[in-house]
Amino acid sequence: MADETQEPLSLDWGFALPDEVFALPDADQDEQVRYNDDLCQWGDRFFIRCILPVPLKDQDDYFGWGVWAEVEAEVFERYLELYEEDGREEPPHPAKLANRLAPYPGTTQGTRVLVQFQTPDERPTLTLLETDKSRLAQEQRDGIDAARHREVLEVSGG
Questions:
Q1: Residue 153 in 3-state DSSP?
Q2: Cα–Cα dist 31/136, whole Å
Q3: Which of 1, 27, 89, 141 has the smallest count of CB within 10 Å of its CB?
Q4: How far is CA 134 from CA 9, 16, 75, 105, in A?
Q5: Rounded distance between C-alpha atoms, residue 143 and residue 54, angstroms
Q6: Confidence (pLDDT) at 6
Q7: What is the pLDDT of residue 80?
Q8: Residue 45 CB: number of other CB atoms within 10 A?
Q9: What's the predicted TM-score (pTM) here?
Q10: Would you state the pLDDT for residue 16?
Q11: Which of 15, 76, 67 has its CA nearest to residue 43?
């Protein structure tokens, strides 16, 4: 009898850096960019590593895109002020998605989002705007089933 058990599907997919920063030659990254796992500054551009959650319809969980959001300097500074505090009461801040998500047609890079700060041990979360009619926005609102979850991982290279 064939073994019907399958490995559980990964619940996240992350990006090491914003796409434009990642594309820089190593020497330019070393000279021009300051970054760690949570924050990135490239000249006068500021990025925060976030989670863009997409609910899973068949589970009480979500698939989390570990993406970078480009924010204004004031938002970046505010995040630093609240870095060790609970920022969930802070109103959401406008941002732009700084990574291209391969499973979605067109480009997701530059998509307008809202960033919501969280507790110190949680990355901020991103929400696409209610007016956004893209497939990503629809899936964030409605969730994805197991087949789409598998497809997202395959297209992403996982």
A1: helix
A2: 35
A3: 1
A4: 24, 24, 25, 9
A5: 6
A6: 60
A7: 96
A8: 17
A9: 0.92
A10: 95
A11: 76
